Structures
1.
Amino acid sequence: MSWFMQSTTSAGLLLLVFWLAMWRLNVCLSGCQNSRVIKFLVPLIFGLTLLILWEGVVRIFAINPVLLPTPSAIAVRFVGSLPVLWADFVQTFVKGALTGYAVGCTAAFLTAVAIDRSPFLQRGLLPVGNFIAALPIIGTAPVLVMWFGFDWQSKAAVVVAMVFFPMLVNTVQGLQASDHMQRDLMQTYAASYPQALLKLRLPAAMPFVFNGLKICTTLALIGAIVAEFFGSPIKGMGFRISTEVGRLGLDMVWSEITVAALAGSAFYGIVALIEKSVTFWHPSQR
């Protein structure tokens, strides 16, 4: 027993030394010249360090894999379940999240333009929208599933409800970002509202619009996964997570979480790249 305690203590100290060494390495790299290689290496080293520590802690302290499987076990299950994970990805992300994201953000953008044009809608619709946005998804998702059925359409409806008002609020705020002097100048040129919208207000609103789009990337995936907890076909990330938790298949649960994390990060990154090309003139992109 004493030998086991000593070996556990030694292994724990080695993990601590490894963590401190990697931390020091990252601090040194962060202080180097800001380049693309450094920007890539710092998060990569940090992520790999966390995975190695995770693996070591689980093995050294013999944590039950039902509670916390090792990254290696998750990787083995991930590779062995690629067809299932792909089908779940298509059902949840491609059909549910992306469709709801596109419909919700487009509807919110058009509504924001209408609100910007109408003072009545500014005073009447926005307070109602804030009230509806405060409703918890755990309460609205079952209702929407009952209305739109158990397939991906109901998940897209939940996503629309989640992304609509964050996108609406950001776009409305962006359309009001231009100052009064610029608007007066457009009136001096006898510009119509569509001309002022296209040449002044929309360009000024683009940073706000993309801020809303980036926020909604994460909300869309969360909404689609949570909606599947309340009824879905026999595929989908949310369905698989709830099913495997009941079967104590935590390695599969973590595999689905990995797919969701990768998909969400890639989605956010694509929107950020588009933002960089569209709003290259903004100080935040310099």
2.
Amino acid sequence: MSEHLNVLAIEIGERNLNNTGSLRKTADYIAWQFSRNNLFKELDEFTYQATSFANVKGQITGTVNPEKIIVIGAHYDSVVGSPGANDNGTGVAALLALAQIFKNIKSEKTIRFVAFVNEESPYFGGPGMGSHNYARRCRDQNESIEAMFSLETMGYYSDETGSQTYPPGISGYPDQGNFIAFVANLKSAGLLTETTDIFKTVGNFPYQKIAAPDSLPGVSLSDHMCFWQMGYQAVMVTDTAPFRYPFYHTADDLPDKINMAMFTELVANLAKTFALLAGSNL
């Protein structure tokens, strides 16, 4: 995964319209990775404000219930002025690693790996988000998405007291930022419980979970929000981003800030969790 992080944050760098050609370079890199892992790939293109953008999809079609779909997604753009190693190079690196792990696996349900464009400002929360366009198309086609997982800023951990903060309204959680968080809205509480019940059986990675109203600050932090809006259950997997990561949205969000040992262990455990949810074993 370190190779993916270096390509994204160092070779390509800032990934948005301010860095000409960076979004297409990133989309092409992700598509190439899907292809070399023998996944069906597709550029899901759309136009917003006279500019063409593309989500990138790879898929493993289910062998028993192909109509039942699990979406694993991560946004590949970065905020203006940041190379985005953690936000969200780690999400994309995890997505690509999971695609490689699953390439020869038979799954009862269909698994989609989707890299979304335009999660960051000025698109966040509006119709220019790649995940908004993708989730809307899924709903328009009446697709049976049973679960969506948003991989969002996943690579920074600290054992220091006070390294973890929380938005207003959330209390009773650790003040050390040494865990991964599973975040859901109230309508996705069932998926949250099912996911974390599996996650805790496949390894010993520290985690916390929360199901909270969509309106609570920090809960609707990423692409999962767009799937909630379309009536799908979705869970964000995150190191909590601005509530922990001191280099969030800065020029110093570089690969050397990532705890590769913990990040690698996390992705291995997520792979086992997603496999079981999809009716497969690794």
3.
Amino acid sequence: MNKTLVGVLVLCVIVFSLPFFLRVHYSFINGQTNTAEILNATPVFVATHVETPSAVKAIYITACVAGTPSWRERLKKMIIDTELNSVVVDIKDYSGTVSIVDSNLQANDVSGCRVKDMRDFVADLHKNNIYTIGRITVFQDPYYSKLHPELAVRSKSSGGVWKDHKGLSFIDVGAKPYWDYIVSLSKISYALGFDELNFDYIRYPSDGNMQDTNYTWTASTSSGQIMSKPEMLKSFFSYLHDNLKDTGMKMSADLFGMNTTANDDLGIGQVLENTLPYFDFVDPMVYPSHYPPTWNGFKNPAEHPYEVVKLAMQGGVDKVNMASSTISKLRPWLQDFNLGAPYGVAEVRAQIKATYDVGLNSWLMWDAGNKYTPGAFLPEEANVGLNQ
């Protein structure tokens, strides 16, 4: 073969191979290792995460607000300007609607609020060093119950899907195929940038004709006995923990406030001590307005924000100590909304003080309308101690 022909062949190989080598070079610069991504020269998004503050002080925002730039900017500014340092954002709400858009998730009800730029929103929060918690409601899920009625709590009388007094349906706690859906959603959310996943409605239903409920997915213990509600929930906690522990995400569990002082599972399977081994934080919802009349002698508990929160969280501290766990895992949900009594600066600060007075330093503030009380949070430069 003459030199001219050899030269032409070599030149052809170089020309046709150049795009591939350029893609490989581009991909390795960007830390990519997947062959398909290398060939397509597609940069891979790698989420950044914020370290958990030593004292988490958060407000909750709905997906609808997170998807409204002007509103979420006002709340972000409030966080930056005050002692607040964290935010809880809905990923999956009480209806089962998922706010994030991801091709790996099953099609969802388009009637709910979505946050199309959730990844950018979380990244923007991180730029301001705001710890970002994603809230996932678990077993109350009307959407998924409709999509997969075979996984739902059933009605004994009709044989169909059971619904509570509000017309809401629940997934059976024992339905393991649904557990995998929650694990998958959690992993997708963490990869999007959320620093912590907060699991709410981790319980059996509580409002409705409970005599008509039929739990067809309840498992058996090793001895062949049917699992109790607390045992079934604990099995779910263990599964969630085992399947997410290697991701690096923090995990928290929301509990009914009465769990801190009750001696049983309240009929919904929740036992505070059962959550401690599987979650980084346990968040009792100790809203004073949610305690029944005459609780601990208070005719209207909502009118006694300091006393209710202090009694409730002291009960939690005592239980955690008895379980030889650490009280830093306790982080209450507090009330900033009018129910049972008007709530303003004094009532919000009273709950925060009660939290500090039992030796805790973290809290989450709830208002479903996301219209938080001006002046309820101290200026950012304030040095807030445990007893302030």
